[in-house]
Amino acid sequence: MCTSLHYQNCMGRNFDYEISYKEACRIHDKEKYKIIGMVTDIIQEYPLYYDAMNECGLCIAGLNFEGNAYYNKYKKENKNNIAPWELPVKVLGNCRNVMEAKRYLEDVWIYDKNFNEQMPNSSLHWMICDKNFCITVEPMKDGLKIYNNEVGVLTNNPPFPAQLKAYRRSKKVKSLYKKLYKKLLKKEYSTRGTETLGVAGDLTSMSRFERACYYKDKMISKGKQASETFHLLDLVKQPYGATPVGDKFEYTIYEVVYDMKKGSMQVKNYDNEVYERRL
Questions:
Q1: I want to staple 40 with a disulfide (CB 3.0 to 4.6 A). Which of 21, 181, 184, 272 is the partner?
Q2: Is residue 9 part of a domain?
Q3: Does the residue 145 lie in any domain?
């Protein structure tokens, strides 16, 4: 469920889930820096951002991290105590770029405070990026981990270092696979696209991570970065019916692309209807 990626001046994100909570765009202007992003429209008193961007071009996306995310059970003295649902607003409301976000997070203590009794905390990790840098933030039992994310991709489980290690290993396997395929392939069966042989095609978290990394690395920009980010997101989207969750199906409820230069966001829903909002 969910894939996010950083591509040049854009951050894109697929929101995959089996239930919609009336997702909508909202602008929040009560912090140091103005914020725009996607929230659940069920809650009006506080912007519970799934993903967002501030007026400086700093972006964040929270993705499911079930079974690995750990929130402390208590507050800690002399620390910046923050509930997980507060993190997007606190980071984007106070930081201009990734470097400032990293310094801000060094003092953060994430504790398990629910928004209300009806809304327990989701298990999350986060991608934070600006025009130049990208990091992954993971709340683990042994502390809040902050990783430089040089591939600019995040999905779900396992933790980010394991995802990155698996992707690097898969690059070696694909190289061997292509050599063997070309050696065995009869001329009459030859086809274009053999360069993509071995790229994972399923919808698991690790395969989406690998696929997004591979095509992001191969993408040659034609100057329309927001459009190109949507093309990358389309490669990892989930069609309704492919991923059963009990008696429901997980699917890509929306795709969103934040343009850090323009201060705008474009949202595409499951029916391919697109709308744009600006700060």
A1: 21
A2: yes
A3: yes
